Amino acid sequence: MPYVNVKITNEGVTSKQKTEVIKGVTKLLQDVLGKDPATTFVVIDEVDMENWGIRGEQVSEIRKQATRIKGNNNE
């Protein structure tokens, strides 16, 4: 009975995209490990960007910096 917990930043992921993630992870476990999809659990947790960090920075700040850089490149 596999349980997979997928954590992503809360950045507008659609219901359709979540469905695809759940289907894809379930299929992966079936194909690679022979797990029964009927007993495979996939949970998606969306985390606020302020609560997710990488490289010592909040993802919200990284996204702001990327937006500023992108905006400067379009000028």
**Total of DSSP H or I helical runs spanning 4+ residues:** 2
What is the percent of helical residues?
Answer: 40-55%
Radius of gyration: 17 Å
Major sheet strand order? 1-2
- Under CATH, the homologous superfamily reads Macrophage Migration Inhibitory Factor
Q: What is the β-strand count?
A: 4
What composes the largest sheet?
A: 2 strands, parallel
Q: What structural class do you assign from the helix and strand content?
A: alpha+beta
Number of domains: 1
End-to-end Cα distance, whole Å, is 53 Å
Strand content: 15-25%
Query: What is the CATH topology classification name?
Result: Macrophage Migration Inhibitory Factor
Q: What's the oligomerization state?
A: single chain
Low-confidence stretches: none
Gross morphology is: elongated
Identify the CATH class: Alpha Beta
Task: Describe this protein's structure.
The chain contains 2 helices and 4 strands. It has helices at residues 15-33, 59-73; strands at 3-9, 41-47, 53-54, 57-58. The longest helix has 19 residues, at 15-33. The termini are far apart.
